[in-house]
Automatic annotation (TrEMBL):
GO molecular function: metal ion binding; RNA lariat debranching enzyme activity
Residues that span the membrane, as ranges: none
Protein family per UniProt: Belongs to the lariat debranching enzyme family.
Metal-binding is among the record's keywords: yes
Protein name: DBR1 enzyme
Cofactor(s) essential for the protein: Mn(2+); Zn(2+); Fe(2+)
Keyword presence, Iron: yes
Residue stretches of biased makeup (Acidic residues): 396-405, 431-442
Region (Disordered): 386-536
Basic and acidic residues bias locations: 386-395, 485-510
Any single Pfam family the record assigns to this protein: DBR1
Places the protein is found: Nucleus
Bias (Polar residues) ranges: 415-427
Amino acid sequence: MKVAVAGCCHGALDKMYETLELLQRRHNVRPDLLLCCGDFQAVRNEADLRCMAVPAKYRHMQTFYRYYSGEKKAPVLTVFIGGNHEASNHLQELPYGGWVAPNIYYLGYAGVVRFRGVRIGGISGIFKSHDYRKGHFECPPYNQQTIRSAYHVRNIEVFKLKQLKRPMDIFMSHDWPRSIYHYGNKKQLLKMKSFFRQEVESNTLGSPAASELLQHLKPTYWFSAHLHVKFAAFMQHETNSKEELPKATKFLALDKCLPHRDFLQIIDVEHDPNAGDSLEYDAEWIAILKATNNLVNVTQNTWNMPEKNGLHAKWDYSVTEEAIKEVLEELNHDLKIPCNFTPTAACYDPSKPQKTMEPVHTINPQTTEFCAQFGLTDINDRIQQAKEEGSGRAECEEEEEEEMDSTGSAEEPSEYNTDNSGLSSFNPDEIMLDEEGGDEDLSTCSVDPSPDHPPEFSTSFSDIRIMPDSMAVSSDDAMDSNNEELEKSGGSKQVEEKSSTERSLKRIGGDENGNSGVKKIKRRNQAIYAAEDEDK
């Protein structure tokens, strides 16, 4: 089947679907599925705009609300992940995924689905080490910190995805896996984006969490966006045993959605001709959600996922074939995701603007139904409960002037650097949020520049590239030698890296409610996890 892949959509749905229709008219090519790699911007109204972490000048309604209201319908099934410029209050309603509009499906914080037998996974948000070990505690109305931390990747989502054993066909992340640039034309990438040089040379560009998943999942295709540059790479994975067949991943980063840009890619993916045309649950993923349900944490407390270190009775949450079979039996072997989209907020009306509309924390009936069906924790319901309990405790402490007990908590001060994620990364698009006057993220480019485009978007078809049978990097695009000295380009922007210092890190084990024990250990792989957090 034909799959269209888009980079950062930025709410320009009309433009994206118009391009697909143009593809069909001119080349008789009709994609069966559209994937979007984040910054989708499912903005329904003015309140949603307030929940999008961008400077005020970039807060535009765009066209998603027309699909939310039913005025328009997506002409092709669309599956997307979240990025770092989203209406976080809207996406937060669907932590396990769900329909944001008819025929438009969000994968959730992390998720795996199937379409025509093709297995598609993804993780939303971007990596920031200082939030990586926290729970999903944010809820609207957001403050200046939580409006950003709401879209930061959490370790629990990575942990869940690492329990997967069955092969993955396609995986999406918003930010790039760290080190992927070493498997493509690195020299040309730096020519187009010279301010990446220092991070590329120090191997700190991209997400270490995504890199970890890439090495574990070994998908056939991996798609990303975020950096607004088109880049292809081919990664051959190491085998763990002689019996294991060699695997390789074709990586592609997409440019953002703009007229006369190559923001869409069409690829041919092998599928099951006997499978239906409906989006389906993935039985293994559902079984993993059930197995890891007691690990849900909705507090700001930082904690580590279970591992084989003597502190946890259980550390392997991968599921058995029997557990997968139980999921199938629960669903009567009908994995079709119900088309149960329900509007949960008022839709923008251009004739009646409501600039003072405030966001509210909403429990989405899709999530309620999903959690009830599979016996899962409704994260938003748990957040509301935690807020109510926290408020009650605060009042009680104020009246009785009680001190906290000494049993220890995950917020207990530590002499150690608790940032064991090990990684931090400067990202120009993320820094843009603090630079109201900058327009740098409006400039986009491609590692494989296309010819000059005609001036009119409606008559231009250069927004689409048909992917050849192989995405493998050609000999001209082969990766640079590790010892090769890259060309120095004048005027490149450099970002000062903070020096890494090795420190002993505190290990805090957590229970099912996110509360911690008092046992502390030092991190074994200290050399890997000792990098200081730039974002303090």
